[in-house]
Design goal:
With 336 residues, the chain is mainly beta. It contains two helices and 22 strands. Strands 1, 2, 3, 4, 5, 6, 7, 8, 9, 10, 11 and 12 form a twelve-stranded antiparallel β-sheet that branches. Strands 13, 14, 15, 16, 17, 18, 19, 20, 21 and 22 form a ten-stranded antiparallel β-sheet that branches. Strand 1 and strand 2 form a beta hairpin. The longest helix is centred in the N-terminal third of the chain and has 11 residues. It is globular, with a radius of gyration of 19 Å.
Length: 336
């Protein structure tokens, strides 16, 4: 069974197998199974930590951060969870349509193997199990994932070989949820809903960027796009990465493939690459909720994320509209 974090990119043009041995990955997540693997010695957290760091071209030392983002959405409910570590400790952040929460943990509690364990909380590409009780927040329950959809190759492309301030990875563009969470006494049944998983690692978030993600569409489409100010030595540039997963095909727009950023402001994003273009338009103000963000390896910065925004997406090949749909459940971040 393959780790969430080690060797996540497939080799060549093949799609990543979650199991790493050709098995399908539709079995539910269970904490008992995770603990059983640990007791049987089937994974070594230090080995996987080292492997993940090498895969992201960072060393497991000094002031660096890493975080993994798990989004869960069904009908009117969206709940995203960010689990990670930085030089000043481990953490879990939760963001809903109306609130955000930051829960600190000791760095030594952050154990990453087949399952990422943070005290009584467990995370993997097969699901999560949560048991968080702190002032103002009580979040418990379990959600399993099936039909994980990895992308073809590393989203960073050749930039993965260069010293970057922040490295991005996509674990799953789209998958099915099964299970329930109880948030401060309110039951959230995500069974039949949609999920998304990505990650970041490095020193700091870009000082200016736009990020949007959505898979709450009628036809099973999933879109992630990000534009960022990227420092590179004494120079800097605006870069973009984007994946459109549509009708069983994957379309990649990226700076390293010749994509250009035709327009970017707080309400609209337009990317073009050859015959393809993606337009993203925020249809109404969406201020979002406050989250902590990495700065020089510590969680001392702040950003705002809106987990459910009304956004119009249009994806074209020349004059042909391949996809056009409005969603009320797009996640959105814009930092000037």
């Amino acid at each position: 069974m393959k780790s969430l974090w080690a060797d996540i990119q497939p080799k060549g043009n093949a799609r990543a197998s979650l199991s790493g041995d050709g098995e399908t990955d539709t079995y539910p997540f269970s904490t008992a199974g995770a603990l059983g693997m640990a007791h049987q010695g089937q994974f070594n957290p230090l080995k996987f930590l080292k492997g993940a760091a090498q895969g992201l071209n960072i060393l497991p030392m000094g002031n660096y951060f890493e975080g993994f983002y798990f989004k869960h959405q069904i009908r009117q409910d969206t709940l995203s969870i960010i689990v990670g570590r930085a030089a000043d400790g481990a953490f879990i952040q939760i963001v809903t349509d109306t609130h955000s929460y930051h829960v600190p943990y000791p760095l030594k509690a952050y154990l990453k193997g087949e399952i990422l364990t943070l005290e009584d909380n467990y995370f993997s590409r097969h699901g999560i199990r949560l048991s968080i009780q702190t002032e103002g927040l009580n979040l418990t329950g379990e959600i399993s994932y099936s039909g994980i959809t990895p992308i073809q190759g590393d989203i960073m492309g050749p930039f993965r070989f260069l010293p970057m301030q922040c490295r991005h990875t996509i674990v799953s563009m789209n998958h099915t949820l099964s299970g329930k969470l109880v948030l401060n006494g309110r039951e959230l049944d995500f069974t039949g809903g949609r999920g998304y998983i990505e990650g970041d690692a490095g020193r700091s978030f870009p000082k200016s960027y736009t990020w949007v993600q959505c898979n709450a569409f009628s036809g099973g489409c999933s879109i992630m796009a990000s534009v960022a100010h990227i420092p590179f030595g004494l120079w800097w540039f605006w870069g973009c990465i984007c994946v459109v997963s549509l009708a069983g095909k994957e379309y990649r727009l990226a700076t390293y493939r010749g994509a250009t950023i035709r327009h970017r402001d707080e309400r609209r994003l337009l990317l073009e690459q050859g015959d393809f273009s993606l337009s993203v338009q925020l249809l109404e103000p969406c201020p979002g909720n406050l989250l902590r963000a990495p700065s020089k390896g510590r969680m001392t910065g702040h950003i705002r994320e809106a987990p459910s925004c009304r956004v119009l997406f249009e994806f074209r090949r020349k004059n042909d509209i391949l996809f056009k749909e409005e969603s009320h459940f797009a996640s959105y971040e814009h930092v000037v």
